Amino acid sequence: MITDQFLDQVTTVIQRAGLTAESVAALRDAFPDLHFTHCLDDDIGAGVTPIRETGGFNVYLITRAEHCIAFTRSQEGATGLVLAEVNDEP
After folding, report:
1. Is 90 part of any domain?
2. Domain tally for the chain?
3. Which of 19, 52, 55, 79 has a 20 to 30 Å separation from 42 between CA atoms?
């Protein structure tokens, strides 16, 4: 289960360290039971809503409950996060 406190912690870490391959790798090392993915927010399909929106990146919940990774809105059933970089440039 992914709690609000955990989302706050991850968001703070990424805001301080920046959203990079290294910061995502550090999260994977620190929380080996969870899945972390880094991509551009533009790569996320239409109709998928982030669980958190911050300056520079959005956070989405994912689950692999049915053997394939899928987006979810359920923090209880989530097994990982997608950290999606937002590009504010036109």
Report:
1. no
2. 1
3. 79
Q: Could you list the residue range(s) of the whole structural domain that residue 31 is in? A: 4-85
Beta bridge partners of 80: 35, 62
CB atoms within 10 A of CB 44: 16
Give per-residue pLDDT as tens, 40-85: 999 998 899 999 999 899 999 999 877 788 999 999 999 999 999 9
Is 11 a domain residue? yes
Residues 49-58: contacts with CB within 8 Å, 24+ apart?
A: 49/73, 50/84, 51/7, 51/75, 52/7, 52/11, 54/11, 54/14, 54/15, 55/15, 56/15, 56/19, 56/85, 56/86, 57/14, 57/19, 57/83, 57/84, 57/85, 57/86, 58/83, 58/84, 58/86
